[in-house]
Amino acid sequence: MRATCTTRGFTMLETLMVIAVFSLLSIILVNLFLNFGGFYTSQQANIDVVQSANRLMRDIEVATLVADSVEISHFFSSGTQSTDADSLVLRLPAINASGDPIAASYDYVAFYASGTAAYRVQEPSGSSARQSEASEYRDVAALSFMYNASSTTDVSSVDVMIRTEATEDGRVLQTELVQLVHLRNKP
Asked: Phi and psi of 78, rounded to 5°?
C-alpha cells in the first residue's frame, strides 16, 4: 500500500486573491484616515474663526456694560485712538482692589481694527486696580460700530458688527456677529 499525503497548501490563485483583498482594504483605510485628517483641520479652522469673533464680541460687551461714556478720543501709550465707524473708545469708572468705583478716576479702553486683526487697548488710571493691557484678535476682516446718537456724549448704545475670515485649503471660512450693546453706567 501506498501512503497518501493529505496536507494541501494554498494555491497561487488563492494567495493572490487574499493579497488583493487585503491591499484594497488597506487603500480604503488609508484614504479614510487622510480624508478625516483634512476634515478635522477644516473644522478646527472654522472653530477658531468663530471663537475669535465671539471673544472679541464678549470683550466689547463687557467693557461697554461698565462704561459710563463713549469718548471722542483718548491718548494711549501706543497712540491716540478716536471713536468713529471702525473704532470705539470707552471711559470706565476706575475701581479699587475690591471692585468698588473710585470717585473722579477713570480708565480707558479702545477697540479698533487694523489689517486682518482687531485690537483692544486698556489704560487704567494710576489709582485703579485694573491692569494696563493690549489684546489682539486674529482673522478679523471687518469691525464696525454704529452709535445711537451723533454726539459721543449722548451715546447710550452701540451696534457692533464683527466679521472674521480665514482661508483653509482654498475654502473661505467666515463668521459675522452683530449685537447691540448698552452703556449700563451711562449717567
From this structure: -85, -5
What is the tens place of the pLDDT at every residue in 143-161?
999 999 988 889 999 999 9
Helix (H, G, I), strand (E, B) or coil at 182: strand
pLDDT over 70 (residue 7) = no
Amino acid residing at 50: V
Counted residue by residue, the chain has a size of 187
Give this prediction's pTM.
0.78
Alpha helices, H only, the chain: 12-66
Cell 483641520, residue located: 41
Listed by start position, the domains of the chain span 38-182
Residue 177 CA to residue 92 CA, distance in Å, equals 24
- Give the torsion through C-alpha atoms of 47, 52, 54, 55, to 10 deg: 130
